Structure formats: C-alpha cells, structure tokens
Amino acid sequence: MELANILLFIGASFLLCLAPGPDNIYVLTQGMTRSKKAAIVTTLGLCSGLVLHTSAAAFGITMIFQTSQVAFDIVKYLGVAYLLYIAYQAFKYRNEPLDLTTQNSAQELKKLYIKGFIMNILNPKVSIFFLAFLPQFVNPAAGSVPLQMIILGAIFMVMTIVVFSSIGVAGNLLSAKLLEKPSIVKYMNILTSFVLVSLGIKLALAER
Q1: Has residue 16 been placed in a domain?
Q2: What's the chain look like in SS3?
Q3: Which domain holds residue 152?
Q4: What is the mean pLDDT of each run of 10 residues along the chain (208 residues)?
Q5: What is the number of domains present in the chain?
C-alpha cells in the first residue's frame, strides 16, 4: 500500500471521527456524566465492535445488509431496543448520587465496555459504511484486498480510540465543576437518557 494513500486515509478518518455521530456523542456523555476512565473504556468497547465490522467488510459479509432488507431491519431494531433500554436505565437511576469509586470499579467499567461493544455491532449502518469507505483506499494491484481492508480498519480503529477518548476527556473536564453540585447529576442522567433515545430514533429511521 502506498504511503500517500495511507496518509490520505488517516486524514479522512480523523475528520470522520470528529464529525458528530451516535458513537462520539455517547462517549461525550459518558465523559460528562461519569469519568474520564468511563469515556475511555466506552471508546474501547465501541472500537472492539469495529473489529467485526472490518472483518465483515473485508470478507463480503456486509453485502447481506445491502441486499437483504429483513437482515438490515432485524439488526437495526435490536440496536434500537438496546439503546432505549440503557436510556431507561439512565433515567430510572437519575436521582442516585454520583459515586466515582463505584463508577470506576472493575465491574462497572466492564459493563460500560460491553455496552459500547453491543451498541456498535447492532448498528448495521456501520458495516455498510465500512463496505463503502474502505474500498476507496484499496489498491488491488498491491496484493490481497481483504488484508488491505483489515489494515485500513485497524488504522481507523486507532484513530477512533485517540479522537473519541479525547472527546470524552474534554467532556469530563468541561463538566467537572458542574458535577460538584449533587443536583446537577440528576440532569446529567436525564441528558444521557435523552441522547440515547435520540440515537435510538435516528437508528430506527435509518435506511440501507
């Protein structure tokens, strides 16, 4: 693969990661309502899902979502249901005081990682995006196309981890003063549930 092509891909990936979307907005809310560590762990969960999307795009599995409306809808509505479920959880426990020792425990961070992973893999739009985006930077003359797509997917994941983690940390720094007031935590949780419901509605309205 040519260096110029890889650099172009890195630049495009960076801009795409910065563009407001469901995943980075969710990471931002995690940074604002929980902690820097929570935002980073959520990012790692989301990016783990990208491993599956990259593999699917590289080996043509994503074509199923492009050709089958039923398959696309099944995965999409599973994703919508999951987003609404965690939105309900955030709203249900909106009055609980913020306890960072609990929020940053190994068990809670594991839950956040799993949430991020499930959110990502249940969004069929990501698979279709990868199938449309990655091939633009592949050179068939350079060797194995699936291997090139996997390499590009890995680069995209690294870019995502860096950008999303930075967004989450920035969100946490901006909200640090607000979180010193216990009453604000309630509104932060309501904000989180609102964001998740909005993302669920957006996903429900998504088309192939």
Answers
A1: no
A2: CCHHHHHHHHHHHHHHHHCCCHHHHHHHHHHHHCCHHHHHHHHHHHHHHHHHHHHHHHCCCCHHHHHCHHHHHHHHHHHHHHHHHHHHHHHHCCCCCCCHHHHCCHHHHHHHHHHHHHHHHCCHHHHHHHHHHHHHHCCHHHCCHHHHHHHHHHHHHHHHHHHHHHHHHHHHHHHCCHHHCHHHHHHHHHHHHHHHHHHHHHHHCCCC
A3: 3-9+23-204
A4: 84 82 82 87 93 83 69 76 76 62 75 90 79 79 83 92 92 71 65 73 71
A5: 1
